[in-house]
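TASK: fixed-backbone design
INPUT:
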């Protein structure tokens, strides 16, 4: 499921599906609302009130399930990390099919950078993990998965270098109107991969 499908799936008029008479469903409803809002407003501006409005529940419902805002933010980030996990699976499938080349890596990175919500989620996870060590494994999971995937072909040093390029390109995309061009990404990756041969 891509970000567009995630944000629209079963979500009429921006409200998450009802969890009435279903405590666990209500909790999932609130978490889904928080997850939707994180890339829209950022962690700093996420509030119980905003989440309650998006979820279509009372303010008391959000504080009943999440006593403080940090718990709600963490739950939302964990939910959003599932999208990064799906992106990791997509990357694995592409590289298995096409091989690890500058071209396949460029296409994968460019596809990721074009998903603005994924970029925002990645940045929000980095910022949150910087402030809260508990979130660091969650923030590092995607990068570690890429390194593990690339190491058999490229070696651990170059694999880590590719991830650093991805991190830099993600940061660049978050603060610029346009992500790095495919031409530039391919040139950087081609030089890095040729250097390790």
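OUTPUT:
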């Amino acid at each position: 499921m891509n970000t567009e499908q995630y944000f629209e799936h079963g979500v009429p008029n921006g409200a998450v599906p009802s969890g009435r008479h279903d405590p666990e469903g209500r909790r999932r409803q609130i978490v889904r609302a928080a997850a939707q809002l994180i890339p829209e407003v950022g962690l700093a501006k996420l509030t119980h009130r905003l989440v309650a409005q998006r979820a279509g529940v009372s303010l008391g419902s959000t504080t009943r399930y999440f006593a403080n805002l940090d718990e709600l933010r963490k739950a939302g980030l964990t939910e959003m990390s599932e999208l990064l996990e799906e992106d990791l699976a997509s990357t694995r499938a592409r590289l298995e099919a096409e091989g690890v080349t500058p071209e396949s890596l460029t296409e994968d990175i460019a596809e990721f950078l074009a998903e603005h919500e994924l970029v925002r989620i990645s940045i929000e996870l980095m910022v949150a993990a910087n402030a809260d060590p508990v979130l660091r494994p969650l923030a590092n999971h995607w990068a570690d998965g890429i390194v593990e995937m690339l190491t058999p072909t490229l070696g651990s040093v170059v694999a880590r270098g590719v991830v650093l390029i991805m991190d830099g390109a993600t940061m660049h995309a978050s603060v610029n109107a346009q992500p790095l061009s495919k031409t530039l990404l391919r040139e950087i990756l081609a030089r890095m991969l040729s250097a390790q041969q």
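COMMENT: Residues 108 and 121 are 17 Å apart (CA to CA).
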